[in-house]
């Protein structure tokens, strides 16, 4: 009987550990994406028109793309987050929003510089690609949370959409 009780305790403690591990991995993935968004922002801010600046921007964008792929893969492989887990994840997601908005605004501020160096079209394509990846990432998050929490995620996305539209307009005008 003692052995049975010990096994029951061990089995019951493994479930929360697995849940915590999934939440921790989700938070880690979000943190990695957030860090790479910041790196893209730095690369945009330091862009002065040279080849090396384009290489840095390309490198930062590619790293962001890989981080998004990894986060999306993780989101597709785990169970949906429950309400408590979502609360933690939502805080991380809310910290992520301003970084994306500021990166888009930085691109908008640099639009005239990109135009004068002849890289307007290339950067417009980059903006479209970032927007597409951001939408794919958000879709993967929506699929990995309970339906009740999707609205909470979507509420904060208007500022991101607005920043993308404003920045894209800067490159078209």
UniProtKB/TrEMBL annotation:
- Give start-end of the signal peptide: 1-22
Checking InterPro entries in the record gives: Cell_wall_mannoprotein_1 (IPR021054)
Assigned GO CC terms: extracellular region
Domain of life (superkingdom): Eukaryota
Q: Which residues form a coiled coil?
A: none
Task: Respond yes or no to whether keyword Signal is given for this record.
Answer: yes
Keyword terms of this UniProt record: Signal
Q: Which Pfam families match?
A: HsbA
| Keyword hit for Signal | yes
The protein, known as: Hydrophobic surface binding protein A-domain-containing protein
Q: From which source organism is this entry?
A: Aspergillus candidus
């Amino acid at each position: 009987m003692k052995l049975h009780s010990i096994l029951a305790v061990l089995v019951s403690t493994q479930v929360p550990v697995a849940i915590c591990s999934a939440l921790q991995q989700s938070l880690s993935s979000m943190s990695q994406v957030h860090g790479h968004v910041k790196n893209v922002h730095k690369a945009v801010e330091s862009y002065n028109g040279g080849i090396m600046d384009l290489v840095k921007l390309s490198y930062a964008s590619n790293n962001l793309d890989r981080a998004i792929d990894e986060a999306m893969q993780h989101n597709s492989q785990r169970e949906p987050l429950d309400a408590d887990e979502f609360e933690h994840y939502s805080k991380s997601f809310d910290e992520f929003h301003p970084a994306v908005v500021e990166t888009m605004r930085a691109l908008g501020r640099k639009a005239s510089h990109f135009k004068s160096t002849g890289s307007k079209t290339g950067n417009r394509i980059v903006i479209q690609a970032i927007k597409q990846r951001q939408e794919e990432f958000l879709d993967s998050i929506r699929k990995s949370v309970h339906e009740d929490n999707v609205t909470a995620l979507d509420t904060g996305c208007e500022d991101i959409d607005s920043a993308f539209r404003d920045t894209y307009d800067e490159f078209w005008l």
